[in-house]
Fold this sequence. Notes:
Two copies of one chain form a homodimer.
Chain A: H1 5-23, H2 28-32, H3 42-55, H4 57-67, H5 81-84, H6 90-110, E1 121-124, E2 128-131, H7 132-156, H8 170-173
Antiparallel strand pairs in A: 1-2
Amino acid sequence: xxxxxxxxxxxxxxxxxxxxxxxxxxxxxxxxxxxxxxxxxxxxxxxxxxxxxxxxxxxxxxxxxxxxxxxxxxxxxxxxxxxxxxxxxxxxxxxxxxxxxxxxxxxxxxxxxxxxxxxxxxxxxxxxxxxxxxxxxxxxxxxxxxxxxxxxxxxxxxxxxxxxxxxxxxxxxxxxx
Amino acid sequence: xxxxxxxxxxxxxxxxxxxxxxxxxxxxxxxxxxxxxxxxxxxxxxxxxxxxxxxxxxxxxxxxxxxxxxxxxxxxxxxxxxxxxxxxxxxxxxxxxxxxxxxxxxxxxxxxxxxxxxxxxxxxxxxxxxxxxxxxxxxxxxxxxxxxxxxxxxxxxxxxxxxxxxxxxxxxxxxxx
Lengths: 177, 177
């Protein structure tokens, strides 16, 4: 599937509602359980998505629009949520994410990007030359990656509980970040 | 995590809203794209979840409650959705799934199961002896498995579009049912 803004924006717009529908009414044990040492719980994942809204996608897009590939993006802190989410409730995180995402989609719209803009170059600090379209596609794919992670982290809590059905549930046997 | 009805039911109750928040407003290309021949699109997955509500979880529970492990469950048709979903819109499928799930959770509640009931035995046609608790845990894990599948199927549509970022997106490189 080729990237287009018209296809991408609805996915980005949906994510806050998906997280709320999925997590807001769950017992705390689902929200705080992870896959073992140095893995993330759904609570950690929402915090990570918040940090992305604050420091990653739109700030990188603005840097690319202003400076092309002459200035590399600021490296992304994959562990910021362990500091920033401390003492917050899941509800607060869900609200914060929804507000930040709505604001960022408004900013995206304000740039009035055209299809030809998708080829504009930027520079990733590790990956090197990237395009504006690749940056926006990655914003979408990053949401989906972490929604898939929430499904996996939650599912794996029942690896024992499902007994012999484990054979039919590939997600519960997989592991990754 | 040990299985308990109090933890499991909120996950089952959330799934129809998650699917609606995620899929209802997406362009059709996201809904109908799969991972290649003999793989499922989000549309197919919602149809599969509907078939599970009709023929799998609660019917099996009722058989187990009535006959213990003396009668094996009816085998589940993993391809029924290709027949049953034909000519339907996604909105219709989402409504049908939400109604069936709500009805099944009411039926589950009506059985007034106690913790000791979780050990009651049933018989799976392929897996053999299973327990009531394992059946209910699998209902939950099956939802999560297919939510993870939706994330993966959608994410993989952007395997090319993300360019060099693919390295950071394990979900887009994975494949499975």
